[in-house]
Design goal:
This protein is mostly helical and 76 residues long. The chain is built from 5 helices and no strands. The chain has a single domain, classed as Recoverin, domain 1, CATH 1.10.238. The longest helix is centred in the N-terminal third of the chain and has 19 residues. Bound molecules: calcium ion (CA) (2 copies).
Length: 76
């Protein structure tokens, strides 16, 4: 049951992705816990169409999160 819900959510996110490609949300909008770092989870929750590969490539200092500078450089 939960698994099916998650698959449905994933498909829904994918459907929204192409429409959202043109722009990324404001850094502050994505940073749900306001620690000035964006985790992959926060990005996904905010609807940013980012994959783990892109996230890791963008995380140049490899601390597992994106700061505002790293976020500004991501190319989706
Ligand atoms: Ca955060
Ligand atoms: Ca980082």
């Amino acid at each position: 049951m939960l698994k099916n819900t998650m698959i449905a959510a994933a498909v829904g996110t994918f459907a929204m992705t192409s429409a959202a490609l043109a722009q990324t949300p404001e850094f502050s909008t994505v940073d749900a816990n306001e620690d000035s770092l964006l985790t992959l989870e926060e990005l996904n929750s905010a609807g940013v169409p980012i994959t783990e590969d892109i996230f890791k490539a963008a995380d140049t200092n490899e601390d597992g999160a994106l700061d505002s500078e790293e976020y500004s450089r991501i190319e989706l």
